[in-house]
Amino acid sequence: MRRSFIFTTIPFGALVALTVLTGCKVVKNVDPNSESEIEAALTDAERMAIYAREIWDTDVLPTVSKHVVPLAELRSALADDVDAAGMAFGLRPEGEANPWNFAISGTGIILTAKTASRAAKLHVDTDEDGQADVTIQLGPIVRGTSLRDAMPFLLFSNFRDQIEFAKLAGGLNAMAHERLTIPEGDLTAQPVKFEGVFTFKDISKEIELVPTTLTFGEE
After folding, report:
1. How far apart are CA 216 and CA 136, in angstroms?
2. pLDDT at residue 39, rounded to an integer
3. What residues contact residue 1 under an 8 Å CB cut-off, 6+ apart?
4. Rounded to whole angstroms, what are the CA distances from 43 to 50, 144, 148, 207, 216?
Protein backbone atom coordinates (compact mmCIF):
# COMPACT_ATOMS: atom_id res chain seq x y z
CA MET A 1 0.00 0.00 0.00
CA ARG A 2 1.31 3.44 -0.86
CA ARG A 3 1.06 5.97 1.96
CA SER A 4 0.03 9.52 1.08
CA PHE A 5 1.47 12.56 2.95
CA ILE A 6 -0.18 15.96 3.00
CA PHE A 7 2.08 18.96 3.68
CA THR A 8 0.52 22.20 4.95
CA THR A 9 2.35 25.52 4.74
CA ILE A 10 2.06 27.70 7.91
CA PRO A 11 2.57 31.44 7.45
CA PHE A 12 5.69 32.78 9.23
CA GLY A 13 3.72 35.29 11.35
CA ALA A 14 1.46 32.55 12.66
CA LEU A 15 4.51 30.43 13.47
CA VAL A 16 6.01 33.22 15.53
CA ALA A 17 2.75 33.73 17.39
CA LEU A 18 2.50 30.01 18.05
CA THR A 19 6.04 29.91 19.39
CA VAL A 20 5.32 32.77 21.82
CA LEU A 21 2.18 31.10 23.06
CA THR A 22 4.00 27.82 23.69
CA GLY A 23 6.53 29.14 26.17
CA CYS A 24 8.90 31.81 24.83
CA LYS A 25 9.21 34.84 27.13
CA VAL A 26 9.16 38.33 25.70
CA VAL A 27 11.73 40.60 27.42
CA LYS A 28 11.00 44.32 27.41
CA ASN A 29 13.85 46.55 26.33
CA VAL A 30 15.39 48.54 29.21
CA ASP A 31 14.98 52.29 28.95
CA PRO A 32 18.53 53.67 29.08
CA ASN A 33 17.11 57.00 30.24
CA SER A 34 15.40 55.59 33.34
CA GLU A 35 16.64 56.89 36.69
CA SER A 36 17.73 53.46 37.93
CA GLU A 37 19.74 52.76 34.77
CA ILE A 38 21.41 56.17 34.86
CA GLU A 39 22.38 55.72 38.50
CA ALA A 40 23.73 52.23 37.83
CA ALA A 41 26.02 53.65 35.13
CA LEU A 42 27.63 56.18 37.50
CA THR A 43 30.98 55.59 39.19
CA ASP A 44 31.33 55.69 42.97
CA ALA A 45 32.97 59.11 42.72
CA GLU A 46 30.12 60.48 40.59
CA ARG A 47 27.39 59.13 42.86
CA MET A 48 29.09 60.42 46.02
CA ALA A 49 29.67 63.82 44.41
CA ILE A 50 25.94 64.05 43.69
CA TYR A 51 25.11 63.00 47.25
CA ALA A 52 27.56 65.53 48.72
CA ARG A 53 25.89 68.29 46.72
CA GLU A 54 22.42 67.18 47.89
CA ILE A 55 23.33 67.36 51.59
CA TRP A 56 25.67 70.36 51.57
CA ASP A 57 23.18 73.16 52.25
CA THR A 58 20.57 71.11 54.10
CA ASP A 59 22.79 69.06 56.43
CA VAL A 60 26.52 69.82 56.27
CA LEU A 61 26.49 73.60 56.71
CA PRO A 62 23.84 73.51 59.49
CA THR A 63 25.95 70.91 61.35
CA VAL A 64 29.04 73.12 61.15
CA SER A 65 27.05 76.17 62.31
CA LYS A 66 25.53 74.22 65.21
CA HIS A 67 28.89 73.00 66.55
CA VAL A 68 31.21 75.89 65.67
CA VAL A 69 33.39 77.20 68.50
CA PRO A 70 35.74 80.21 68.45
CA LEU A 71 39.31 79.06 67.89
CA ALA A 72 40.70 80.89 70.94
CA GLU A 73 38.12 79.21 73.19
CA LEU A 74 38.89 75.78 71.73
CA ARG A 75 42.64 76.26 72.14
CA SER A 76 42.16 77.07 75.81
CA ALA A 77 39.96 74.00 76.33
CA LEU A 78 42.42 71.72 74.52
CA ALA A 79 45.32 73.02 76.61
CA ASP A 80 43.41 72.11 79.78
CA ASP A 81 42.14 68.65 78.74
CA VAL A 82 41.92 67.24 75.23
CA ASP A 83 39.29 64.61 76.03
CA ALA A 84 37.13 67.08 77.92
CA ALA A 85 37.39 69.53 75.03
CA GLY A 86 36.45 66.74 72.64
CA MET A 87 33.41 65.80 74.68
CA ALA A 88 32.33 69.44 74.90
CA PHE A 89 32.97 70.58 71.33
CA GLY A 90 34.17 67.68 69.21
CA LEU A 91 32.67 65.49 66.52
CA ARG A 92 33.95 62.11 65.47
CA PRO A 93 32.88 58.85 63.81
CA GLU A 94 31.75 55.84 65.79
CA GLY A 95 34.50 54.44 68.03
CA GLU A 96 36.62 56.07 70.71
CA ALA A 97 39.83 55.33 68.79
CA ASN A 98 38.91 57.87 66.11
CA PRO A 99 40.35 61.40 66.41
CA TRP A 100 38.23 64.39 67.30
CA ASN A 101 37.10 66.83 64.62
CA PHE A 102 36.20 70.40 65.48
CA ALA A 103 34.19 73.09 63.73
CA ILE A 104 35.87 76.43 64.43
CA SER A 105 35.62 80.11 63.60
CA GLY A 106 38.40 82.66 63.74
CA THR A 107 40.29 85.55 62.19
CA GLY A 108 43.91 86.11 61.29
CA ILE A 109 46.46 87.63 58.97
CA ILE A 110 47.60 85.76 55.87
CA LEU A 111 51.36 85.28 56.02
CA THR A 112 51.72 83.30 52.79
CA ALA A 113 49.24 82.52 50.04
CA LYS A 114 49.94 79.64 47.66
CA THR A 115 47.07 80.11 45.25
CA ALA A 116 48.71 78.96 42.00
CA SER A 117 48.88 75.32 43.08
CA ARG A 118 46.05 72.82 42.63
CA ALA A 119 46.51 72.19 46.36
CA ALA A 120 46.23 75.92 47.08
CA LYS A 121 46.58 77.02 50.71
CA LEU A 122 46.70 80.03 52.98
CA HIS A 123 49.02 80.10 55.98
CA VAL A 124 47.44 82.28 58.63
CA ASP A 125 48.59 83.81 61.93
CA THR A 126 45.61 83.85 64.30
CA ASP A 127 47.31 84.78 67.59
CA GLU A 128 49.48 87.70 66.46
CA ASP A 129 52.82 86.06 67.19
CA GLY A 130 54.06 86.36 63.61
CA GLN A 131 53.91 82.61 63.02
CA ALA A 132 51.40 80.67 60.93
CA ASP A 133 49.23 78.44 63.11
CA VAL A 134 46.32 77.68 60.73
CA THR A 135 46.58 76.34 57.20
CA ILE A 136 43.41 76.93 55.20
CA GLN A 137 43.01 74.50 52.30
CA LEU A 138 41.59 76.15 49.19
CA GLY A 139 41.88 73.29 46.71
CA PRO A 140 40.77 72.06 44.29
CA ILE A 141 42.87 69.32 45.90
CA VAL A 142 41.78 69.20 49.55
CA ARG A 143 43.33 66.59 51.81
CA GLY A 144 41.75 64.57 54.57
CA THR A 145 38.34 63.37 55.70
CA SER A 146 37.55 66.05 58.30
CA LEU A 147 34.27 67.19 56.76
CA ARG A 148 32.93 63.67 56.37
CA ASP A 149 34.04 62.55 59.81
CA ALA A 150 32.56 65.61 61.52
CA MET A 151 29.07 64.79 60.24
CA PRO A 152 27.31 62.60 62.87
CA PHE A 153 24.68 61.50 60.34
CA LEU A 154 27.26 60.01 57.95
CA LEU A 155 27.85 56.51 59.30
CA PHE A 156 30.17 54.04 57.57
CA SER A 157 27.63 51.27 58.10
CA ASN A 158 25.20 53.11 55.81
CA PHE A 159 27.55 52.85 52.82
CA ARG A 160 28.49 49.91 50.62
CA ASP A 161 32.20 49.75 51.49
CA GLN A 162 35.34 51.72 52.32
CA ILE A 163 35.79 52.81 48.70
CA GLU A 164 32.38 54.42 48.51
CA PHE A 165 32.92 56.08 51.91
CA ALA A 166 36.26 57.47 50.77
CA LYS A 167 34.68 58.92 47.63
CA LEU A 168 32.13 60.68 49.83
CA ALA A 169 34.96 62.48 51.65
CA GLY A 170 36.28 63.59 48.28
CA GLY A 171 32.84 64.81 47.22
CA LEU A 172 32.47 66.92 50.36
CA ASN A 173 35.96 68.39 49.95
CA ALA A 174 35.09 69.28 46.36
CA MET A 175 31.97 71.10 47.56
CA ALA A 176 34.03 73.10 50.06
CA HIS A 177 36.34 74.22 47.25
CA GLU A 178 33.48 74.98 44.87
CA ARG A 179 31.75 77.31 47.30
CA LEU A 180 34.81 79.47 47.97
CA THR A 181 35.37 82.81 46.26
CA ILE A 182 39.08 83.69 46.22
CA PRO A 183 40.07 87.26 45.33
CA GLU A 184 42.62 87.79 42.57
CA GLY A 185 46.03 89.21 43.29
CA ASP A 186 48.40 88.86 46.21
CA LEU A 187 46.60 87.94 49.44
CA THR A 188 49.67 88.22 51.64
CA ALA A 189 49.17 90.45 54.72
CA GLN A 190 45.41 90.59 54.23
CA PRO A 191 43.08 89.81 57.13
CA VAL A 192 40.81 86.80 56.73
CA LYS A 193 37.79 85.53 58.62
CA PHE A 194 37.08 81.81 58.44
CA GLU A 195 34.82 79.00 59.53
CA GLY A 196 35.43 75.34 58.87
CA VAL A 197 36.42 71.92 60.16
CA PHE A 198 39.71 70.27 61.08
CA THR A 199 40.88 66.96 62.56
CA PHE A 200 42.76 67.35 65.83
CA LYS A 201 46.19 65.69 65.91
CA ASP A 202 48.22 67.37 68.61
CA ILE A 203 48.03 70.63 70.53
CA SER A 204 51.41 71.65 69.06
CA LYS A 205 50.47 70.88 65.44
CA GLU A 206 49.33 73.53 63.00
CA ILE A 207 45.62 73.30 62.25
CA GLU A 208 44.81 72.18 58.70
CA LEU A 209 41.35 73.56 58.04
CA VAL A 210 38.76 72.66 55.42
CA PRO A 211 36.86 75.96 55.17
CA THR A 212 33.10 76.29 54.76
CA THR A 213 33.17 80.11 54.70
CA LEU A 214 35.94 82.64 54.03
CA THR A 215 35.80 86.42 54.11
CA PHE A 216 38.80 88.46 52.99
CA GLY A 217 39.83 91.98 53.93
CA GLU A 218 37.98 92.25 57.22
CA GLU A 219 39.36 92.22 60.74
Report:
1. 13
2. 62
3. none
4. 11, 21, 19, 33, 36
The whole model's pTM is what? 0.80
Give the pLDDT of residue 38: 58
- Cβ contact 69:86 at 8 Å: no
Q: pLDDT below 70 — which residues of the chain?
A: 1-40, 95-96, 218-219
The pairing of beta strand 119-125 with beta strand 101-114 = antiparallel
Look at residue 96 in the predicted model and tell me its pLDDT.
67
The rounded Cα 166 to chain-centroid distance in angstroms is 9
